Amino acid sequence: MTTLNHDLPEDRAALIAALRAEGLDAVAYGTGGGNHHVAVAIAENVYIATVSDASPCAVCIFGHAGTIQLHSATVSGGVVTAATIAEAVAAFQGFWADRVRWLALVATGELNP
Length: 113
Prior knowledge:
This protein is α+β, with helices and mostly antiparallel strands. 31% of the residues lie in helices and 32% in strands.
């Protein structure tokens, strides 16, 4: 694999395995319409997840609060581009380590696009 692409099933499977090896409970997550992600839940309906916003693979916080979609792209540092599995794992670990702050931003509405 040269560049990690979260749209490819084999890349998602490899990333899930790498995250689980680091102790993060990663799963494949489909949002419908053919959109697939690797996700780690940090709260009900809030995830650290892969997206393809800016590259074949980026990592951010996303989810839903009622009918409102949440996305950390609205906050500086809220999307981390990952070209490799190692970079994606590091991004997930960074969001996980800072999950209390991210959840506080969800609670105050700062992740609402």
